[in-house]
Specification:
Length: 647
């Protein structure tokens, strides 16, 4: 590799530790590095054989320990705390907006009130939830209003003494079309008020006007095709794991696979939301927030429901809460967040160690190719993460503020360092489709909201035109085949560079720098042209059995042609007829997409792509478009962020 490529590779690697150059970690690391000096780094640190030795070294060796300990001693909580006055001001504004019928504005203000009001400020927080429930009713959001009414009771509102609580419940039930519950709530309110009053009569008249909203359809979680694989967790039986010296372990087909087969449906072992989305998406399940439920202690992030809040706050968030802004301010990459999360979400230190060490043993880390500088940087980051765990008493109560780690803490530090190496090559970005207009396809774009580490998902190798597409249902990864495959064909993902958009040189450079391999896929071997340079020609497979040669579109369809591979005289008439039919089906599928008939479009694309691969090979412009459209249709079945109404 040339020197500029070397620099690019180092930059790519650095970014996987520190993604924000303005964060303080960069300065911290540069200070450690300069205090150690190149000689120590190259002659001593680079010779250390284990992650444990590296972690011990950054804490103990005199060349770096003063700088490391000096900074880590000062690690202290930094997070967005609550603010009762701010919260109450927003609540008053939200009440006013509600009375004026400005529900969208009211929701923004009520959200701020709920987020910022501390739970221990009498029953203020309960009242914030009550205010928001009214606004939500105004917006026609019955279910969310009911959640807020429940939350109001959790935070001090005594429903038994509060007729308003039941009047709002009645309206919320009416919005959900639950007539019986609505009537019961009205009766309770009337009882509390000793009979019908102007207020109850007014609410009844309001309820009369309510037209229940249909429930939004929930996302489909597909089942893997052909049954669960007994050896590969969460995968279909039609794939298997193999290994080769030049490709490492990778997935191939174990059977005949058809276009559209679901090959993997898997939850992440750990996943984190990107900090840019902390204010807009659920910290736990990544869905877009509408009426956020806050953590009881911080206001820097939020959850979509009490369930997500409970799940997070009883596990990982209780450790991360008070240090969230420090972690963000360090500029550390999302991979570092995931490494930390593997421990904070574990049921115990030992459980965290077991999971981390299993990942380190099983996933590729390219340890041989690592430079001492890279290892030192990751070791300092692991030491920082370990210090956070110490400070939050992850290892139990501490009697000292001293940084020097115990034997168990060193094990965790070493595991964090190991994770920082394997995550670099194995993490998937998690995304959804953002809908900004009324048409599902015309106004959609992909938005990356987080990243996660998937067990089986990380065994798929890359090709510059992959044979599967991925979409996400929440945090679950779904891999679906985009073409038919024969047994033992490589089942590949794409790591970023696709041949249609980047030329061979750029792709090879990116993959070498970011994933440390030389791509040898068919688009690379045959140097397929960029999309705009592709012609519309079809390249046919020779119809003779086991030939495999590729033939051009015949000049004269009435004549048979001699195959350049098997030398037999063959007829391409049937193949041509099929390809014409395929073209018609692609057009029909595109029409279905225009009409937003996703299932119809999917069915047509799958069938047509299967027929195409019976008789022809890539690259073929219309089939590439069809495969891309299939991807878009599948993504439409996954996570969608409705950005049409910004509140
Ligand atoms: C997510 S892992 C895939 C599983 C990996 N092959 C293993 O053995 O664990 C990514 C790494 O796999 C290797 N890899 C991926 N695609 C490859 C390909 N087309 N040819 C060779 N190596 C590849 C690279 O070393 C890359 O850093």
């Amino acid at each position: 590799m040339s020197a500029p490529d070397d620099i690019f590779k180092d930059l790519c690697s650095t970014r996987t530790v520190q993604s924000n150059r303005n964060g303080f970690f960069n300065e911290f690391y540069q200070e450690v590095k300069s205090s150690c000096g190149e000689k120590w780094l190259n002659n001593y640190f680079s010779k250390l054989k284990s992650n444990e030795a590296r972690i011990l070294s950054v804490f103990n060796d005199r060349e770096c320990c003063d700088t490391v300990l000096g900074v880590l001693e000062n690690v202290a909580p930094v997070f967005k705390f609550k603010d009762a006055i701010f919260g109450q001001q927003r609540k008053a504004q939200a009440d006013k907006a509600f009375l004026l019928g400005k529900f969208k504005e009211g929701l923004i203000l009520a959200n701020l009130a709920v987020m910022r009001t501390p739970k221990d400020a009498e029953d203020f927080l309960g009242h914030c939830y009550l205010t928001r429930s009214s606004v939500l009713i105004g917006l026609g959001e019955g279910e969310k209003a009911l959640t807020d009414l429940k939350m109001a009771t959790v935070f001090g509102i005594d429903s038994k003494k509060n007729p308003d609580y039941f009047l709002r419940s009645a309206q919320a039930y009416a919005l959900l079309g639950e007539k019986m519950r609505c009537e019961i709530a009205m009766k309770v309110a009337e009882n509390l008020l000793n009979g019908p009053t102007d207020r109850t009569r007014f609410t009844r008249s309001e309820i009369e006007k309510i037209v229940p909203k249909p429930k939004a359809p929930s996302m489909e979680i597909p089942e893997v095709s052909g049954g669960q694989n007994p050896d590969l967790y969460n995968a279909s039986k039609s794939i298997k794991l193999v290994e080769s010296p030049d490709k490492g372990r990778f997935i191939v087909s174990n059977d005949h696979i058809k276009t559209g087969d679901t090959l993997l449906v898997e939850d992440p072992i750990a996943a984190c939301l990107l900090s840019d989305f902390f204010g807009s998406h659920c910290h736990n399940c990544f869905t877009k927030l509408f009426a956020p439920i806050p953590c009881e202690f911080c206001s820097g992030l939020a959850f979509c429901s009490p369930q997500c809040m409970g799940e997070a706050c009883s596990t990982y968030h209780r450790f991360e809460c008070h240090y969230m802004d420090l972690l963000i301010g360090s500029g550390m990459s999302i991979l570092c967040f995931i490494a930390l999360r593997i421990f904070t979400q574990a049921t115990s230190v030992e459980n965290g160690l077991t999971i981390a060490n299993r990942l380190i043993e099983n996933m590729c880390s390219h340890s041989v190719e690592r430079k001492p500088d890279d290892l030192l940087q990751r070791s300092v980051m692991a030491a920082f993460l370990l210090r956070i765990l110490q400070k939050v008493e992850y290892f139990g109560r501490r009697t000292t503020e001293a940084v020097c780690p115990s034997a168990l803490e060193i094990q965790v530090g070493a595991a964090l360092l190991g994770l920082l190496q394997v995550l670099q090559f194995n993490v998937h970005e998690i995304y959804g489709t953002s809908i900004t207009g009324d048409h599902a396809y015309d106004n959609s774009k992909v938005i990356y909201v987080g990243a996660g580490i998937f067990g089986t998902g990380s065994y798929f190798n890359h090709e510059c035109w992959p044979s599967v597409t991925r979409h996400f249902v929440g945090k679950k990864i779904v891999l679906t085949s985009t073409r038919p495959m024969e047994p033992n064909d490589i089942v590949s993902e794409n790591y970023g560079p696709v041949f249609t958009r980047k030329n061979l040189k750029e792709r090879q450079r990116d993959l070498r720098a970011r994933y440390l391999f030389d791509c040898n896929c068919i688009p690379c071997r045959e140097n397929w042209p960029l999309f705009q340079k592709l012609d519309k020609n079809v390249r046919f497979k020779c119809p003779s059995a086991n030939c495999g040669a590729v033939l051009r579109y015949p000049k004269d369809l009435s004549k048979d042609v001699r195959c350049s591979g098997c030398r037999k005289i063959v007829s391409l008439k049937e193949s041509v007829v099929k390809v014409i039919k395929v073209g018609e089906m692609y057009r029909e599928a595109a029409e279905a997409m225009k009409d937003q008939e996703t299932d119809k479009a999917l069915g047509l694309f799958k069938e047509a792509i299967n027929i195409f691969f019976d008789v022809a090979v890539l690259p073929h412009k219309d089939t590439l478009i069809a495969q891309q459209s299939l991807r878009t249709c599948l993504a439409d079945k996954g996570t969608k962020f409705d950005n049409r109404t910004t509140v």
